[in-house]
């Protein structure tokens, strides 16, 4: 498994580990599982329970409020800039994976040395590169799937007709060919006539002897 993919998997495992005691949080991926905002709140509560003392009253249906709470606390208290928007989480069923991964990785780098929750091979740079690589793979796969099998890779040969040759080289290209044939025919006739004349002379000389 590539290093970048191990990093993505390690980040997800880390999130699962620190939220394992929260019954309403079930992290199965790094996209939809974070939509209701409870996963973000659970990560914060796990390490800083005093920041969300009434976590138990949060409901999965309050998508906007949960995300807004997590983003505000993370930015104002933990110094983690808000890269996501609560309304976007409400409007989309599947949040952008790259945005979620980038945001969650900031929590990891802040809390990775606390309570032995560090996961190996998690690098923000590698995670970013991996997300870009996955996008490229999807685009490439889509392009390949949309290309019919047997599509010619070599352009067909161009057929040149008589009118194009006349346009490019003039009518003489065909006239000269006819003239050459006439000249060749006349030349052949002259050779035959000369040979006949020489043969006649030889016969005449032989008769005289």
TrEMBL record:
InterPro entries: CH_dom, CH_dom_sf, F-actin_Monoox_Mical. Keywords: Coiled coil, Endosome, Phosphoprotein. It holds the Pfam family CH. Residues 116-159 are annotated as: Disordered. It comes from the Eukaryota. GO terms for cellular component: endosome. Gene3D superfamilies: Calponin-like domain. It is found in: Endosome. The keyword Coiled coil applies. Residues 5-112 form the Calponin-homology (CH) domain. Residues 118-152 have a biased composition (Polar residues). PANTHER family: CALPONIN HOMOLOGY DOMAIN-CONTAINING PROTEIN DDB_G0272472-RELATED, EPS15 HOMOLOGY DOMAIN CONTAINING PROTEIN-BINDING PROTEIN 1, ISOFORM F. This is MICAL-like protein 2. It comes from Lepeophtheirus salmonis.
């Amino acid at each position: 498994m590539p290093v970048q993919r191990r990093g993505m998997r390690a980040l997800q495992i880390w999130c699962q580990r620190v939220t394992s005691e929260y019954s309403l949080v079930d992290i199965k991926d790094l996209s939809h599982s974070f939509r209701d905002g409870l996963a973000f709140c659970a990560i914060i509560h796990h390490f800083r329970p005093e920041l969300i003392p009434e976590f138990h009253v949060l409901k999965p249906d309050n998508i906007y409020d949960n995300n807004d709470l997590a983003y505000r606390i993370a930015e104002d208290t933990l110094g983690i800039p808000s890269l996501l928007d609560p309304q976007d989480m409400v409007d989309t069923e599947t949040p952008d994976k790259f945005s979620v991964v980038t945001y969650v990785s900031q929590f990891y780098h802040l809390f990775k040395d606390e309570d032995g929750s560090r996961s190996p091979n998690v690098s923000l740079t590698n995670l970013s590169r991996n997300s870009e690589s996955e996008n490229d793979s999807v685009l490439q796969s889509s392009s390949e799937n949309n290309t019919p099998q047997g599509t010619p890779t070599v352009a067909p040969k161009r057929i040149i007709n008589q009118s194009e040759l006349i346009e490019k080289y003039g009518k003489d290209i065909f006239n000269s060919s006819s003239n050459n044939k006439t000249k060749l025919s006349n030349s052949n006739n002259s050779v035959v006539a000369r040979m006949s004349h020489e043969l006649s002379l030889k016969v005449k000389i032989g008769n005289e002897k």
